[in-house]
Design brief:
The complex is a heterodimer of chains A (345) and B (309). Chain A contains nine helices and 17 strands. Chain A is 27% helix and 32% strand. The chains are: A alpha+beta (345), B mainly alpha (309). At the A-B interface, strand 6 and helix 2 of A face helix 9 and helix 10 of B.
């Protein structure tokens, strides 16, 4: 069942629309990541769902009800803000039960819910502190606590981890995912970090310029990207996408035409760095830089002035300036149409 | 003269000038000197002199000033005009302070929201602050003028009895209080507006998601976060309530029958109309002590219940 459903939702402030006819749905209990570079409209989409912005057109349904014109409070969503939006003058406990107090939840139940949330998040000892006395990770937990006690079916998160340091981010990533599964929340999660989206989400909605570029499970985005943009956005280092004619001229083995017998002229080939290997025959390339990472080595090569990154296991025996030949399994090549930027099946 | 006996100031001066910490200290004091000299001359010394003078009699052509101890202060206790002025001033303070602060807060919250033409509204609210009090008093003098004043013309439309707002003992204090509120509210609004704008908009969004009404958000979030500003504004409002005197001079001269005589105006009268300077000095000392007490009270009481970010 779809818990959150968007249908042709558009938001514009005059000029070009920030969100342009976006449609997707999130199943109950799923974590859906809204992924994209900054300015792609992912945050605006989230704010439209929360009701903090009103849609110019289109329909938003939450739990089967049309909430497009409803105020935020009656939509049945909780939200964790990027800066946590904790009330600085209230203690942790007061922050967490703020919404319950506003909604006149009886004191006994307030206490019970607070206790439960504090237990889940390990905040018991911090309940009397003010937000300014907490670390970033602790503030993040308080914001989560506020979302948990609301007991809304849908939880919205706007780049919740972007203010934390790298190590804490990895921890919180796991914790949020575990929490979401344990409580059975439907979670919409905005992020610009594709690793976050890939590791946490059941479904990834990749956006670009206010439109959905691709919507599917993480593996699908990785294994069969629908566009060149998706191909290069998902995965690090990004997929190498080069004009097919350049690769052919460099000596890459191909039949002289692409799939469905199309001429190479208007096509591009995408090769993931981990799918390429060094070989006796293949596309000629010059090594421009070598980055040794321990478990593997990234070799930045140039194929006729087009950059091409190869990930080789362990320590690779290549020298900067040296000539190499690159090969890959034909089945691992992704074909794209250069003019439409879209995948060719 | 024997040249060897002439001690050149050069070496000593050079030693002093090249010693780095000493140089920095001297530079610092030199930079402070102009402002400090002016402050000492026109603020600190007069304050001390006022305090000392208050224990002396006022010099007259035939009787030079002499030490009289607490005589001036005893005279204050027995002076009905002082008590009247003090009472007037308390009423004036009680009228201006809460009303102007509440109005300022209300206007700030309003013009902080996204309303059409809010820049124009902000400017309109701030205008009274820019105007000099003398000009303001003259404008309001016209409003209050009997028979053809603006207020009279409007109330006449509704068939109200003609009134002499400034000429009647019953209404004069109220009339000058209103002018002060009109003048002050816009000034305090600016401080509240600045404080409101420093509150993150995501707090309002978080509160909206939790179902808080506009009023709940104001009461539970905005108002508590504005407390430091409120304290600042309050201290200023209290000081202003005892300091504002220009409009009294222009509009009523303390009349009718001392009905609008405020403490500072009375001091001015005693000092510069009656030329009883040492008595004025004693009155000034009393006023300063009063203000100091009020300020201490405010800080002591409010400081503990304020959340500073």
């Amino acid at each position: 069942m779809a818990e959150v459903e968007l249908e042709e939702v558009t938001k514009s402030w005059g000029g070009a629309p920030a969100v342009d006819r976006v449609s997707f749905s999130a199943r109950t209990g799923d974590l859906v990541a809204l992924l994209g570079p900054s300015g792609c409209g992912k945050s605006t989409t989230l704010r439209l769902i929360a009701g903090l912005e009103t849609a110019s057109s289109g329909t938003i349904r939450i739990a089967g009800r049309d909430v497009t014109a409803r105020p935020p409070a009656t939509r049945g969503v909780s939200m964790v803000f990027q800066n946590y939006a904790l009330f600085p003058h209230l203690t942790v406990a007061e922050n967490i039960v703020f919404g319950l107090k506003v909604r006149d939840v009886p004191k006994a139940e307030r206490e019970a819910r607070l206790k439960r949330a504090a237990g889940i998040l390990g905040l018991e000892k911090l309940l009397d502190r003010k937000p300014s006395q907490l670390s970033g990770g602790q503030q993040q937990r308080v914001a989560l606590g506020r979302a948990i006690v609301a007991e809304t079916p849908v939880c919205l998160m706007d780049e919740p981890l972007s203010n934390l340091d790298a190590q804490l981010r990895v921890e919180m990533r796991r914790e949020i995912r575990a929490l979401q599964k344990r409580l059975g929340m439907t979670m919409l999660y905005v992020t610009h970090d594709q690793v976050e989206a890939m590791t946490m989400a059941d479904q990834v909605v990749l956006m670009k310029d206010g439109r959905i570029e691709q919507d599917g499970p993480p593996a699908e985005l990785y294994e069969s990207p629908a566009t060149i943009f998706t191909a290069r956005f998902v995965g690090t280092p990004p997929m190498n996408v080069l004009p097919a004619s350049v690769l052919a001229a460099a000596g890459a083995p191909m039949a002289g035409h692409g799939p469905q017998g199309r001429p190479l002229g208007g096509l591009a080939i995408g090769i993931r760095p981990e799918d390429a290997r060094l070989a006796e025959t293949g596309a000629e390339a010059t090594v421009a830089a070598v980055e040794y990472l321990g478990a593997d080595t990234l070799v930045e090569a140039r194929v006729r002035d087009h950059p091409f990154i190869v990930r080789l296991p362990g320590r690779a025996a290549v020298d900067v300036g040296g000539q190499i030949r690159l090969a890959w399994e034909p089945g691992r090549a992704h074909w794209f149409d250069l003019s439409s930027q879209r995948r060719i099946a | 003269m024997d040249a060897r006996l002439v001690i050149s100031p050069q070496p000593l001066l050079r030693r002093v000038m090249t010693h780095p910490r000493l140089t920095a200290t001297i530079h610092g004091w030199l930079l402070l000197l102009p402002a400090m000299a002016l402050l000492a001359l026109f603020t600190h010394w007069p304050a001390v002199a006022t305090f000392i003078d208050s224990f002396y009699s006022t010099p007259r052509p035939r009787r030079p000033s002499r030490f009289v101890g607490l005589d001036n202060y005893q005279q204050i206790l027995a002076d009905p005009v002082f008590w009247q002025s003090l009472w007037n001033n308390l009423l004036f303070a009680l009228g201006t302070i809460p009303v102007s602060i509440a109005l300022a807060l209300l206007m700030a919250v309003w013009v902080n929201d996204r309303i059409v033409g809010r820049t124009a509204v902000r400017m309109a609210y701030f205008t009274p602050t820019v105007l000099p009090m003398i000009a303001v008093a003259n404008i309001w003098l016209f409003f209050y003028t009997p028979q053809y004043g603006l207020l009279e013309q409007i109330t006449a439309l509704f068939g109200a009895e003609p009134r002499n707002w400034l000429g009647s003992k019953d209404t004069a204090l109220f009339a000058v209080t209103l002018v002060a509120i009109w003048k002050e509210a816009g000034f305090f609004m600016i401080f509240y507006l600045a404080a409101l704008q420093s509150i993150s908009p995501s707090l309002a969004e978080a509160a909206a998601l939790e179902g808080a009404s506009r009023w709940t958000f104001f009461r539970r979030v905005q108002f508590p976060l504005l407390m430091p500003t409120t304290l600042f504004v309050l201290v200023n409002a209290v000081i202003n309530a005892f300091r504002m005197v220009d409009h009294i001079v222009v509009m009523t001269r303390g009349g009718p029958d001392n009905a609008t005589s405020l403490l500072l105006f009375y001091i001015y009268q005693v000092g510069f109309n009656f030329w009883d300077t040492t008595y004025a000095a004693a009155l000034t000392t009393v006023l300063l002590v009063l203000l100091a007490l009020v300020a201490l009270l405010q800080y002591g009481w409010l400081e503990r219940r304020i959340h500073y970010r």
